[in-house]
Amino acid sequence: MSKVSIIIPVYNVEKYLDKCLKSVLNQTYKNIEIIVINDGSTDNSLKICKKYKDKRIALIDKENGGVSSARNKGLELASGKYITFVDSDDWLELDAIENMVSFIEKENVDFVRFCYQTAGVRQNSVSEAENKYIGSEIARFTEKLISGEMPGYLHILMVKREVIKDIKFKTDLPLAEDLIFVLELLKNVNAISMSNVITYNYLENLDSASRSIKHYRRNIHNELMLNKYINEIYDNKYERLSNARCMKEAQIYLLKMYRDGYDINEVKEEFDFFVDDEYFNKIRCNIDESILNKRDKKIFKYISNKKFDKMIKYFKSEINKSIINYKYNRIKLRLKEMCNGNKKTTCN
Predict the structure, then answer these.
(1) Average pLDDT over residues 194-211
(2) How far apart are CA 69 and CA 45, in angstroms?
(3) What is the pTM of this model?
């Protein structure tokens, strides 16, 4: 029975940590090592970790360095044939590891990818059921990750430790560090496979702090850094694809700011931050517009030409259209309910 290393970074998750650890300890697959890295938590997370005396747990307490730093520490200590990751506010299905090991060995591949669910609802993390990529076909999988067609989530993967080699998580990326890790990993693998089996439960944490100005500035800056890393990893092979993705993600954050009711001057500040970045001209001059839909192309035109007022006008029309459609659909639903409750009324 092959050994599996499960790496769990922990930071201030006292409300969720018990559920996470119990889901890992109670796995039907028993040959596991659980590497828990307390990343300088200031709540009771470390105390909760210490109460578990299972010999399969290795607990490391370190100064806060971020999730990438914690995962890197876990990679240093991992000794299993296979490695997977769990976030400490999420939890595994009890047969998750058993399904992962069974599938990776049956398929004889370097890593496998599964599905997850949020609040009991399946998320379509794979676009093609039970698909397998071998050799040159991996480029197609890579393109799907870079374009955003397929998310680069880490928590639904199991990978052979031998193919990770010296790959580390980027500690200067606050977001999407798992995407960069997976993209680097793809350069070392010969075969990968995907399954529609659900192995993971993701907790959607709606933190109000995520809507702060600091948060939006961080996210937009992160997209620029992320794009640079992608182009460095693949020597600009996917530059047009990556640049288009960067532009799409940036406009999503700008739209969210406007929709969340921020002052128009604050939205303009973030817009200027993005379009005035020295890397921006390289992005806007080399984009694969074929992956942009009609809406994205219009917004890309406004951002590329630095037409802030036109972009905001378009955002406003889109939001108003959504509100009208929502109200219209609610009225239709209410009329249908009324008709169903009155058999003498004829409704079309």
Answers:
(1) 74
(2) 18
(3) 0.85
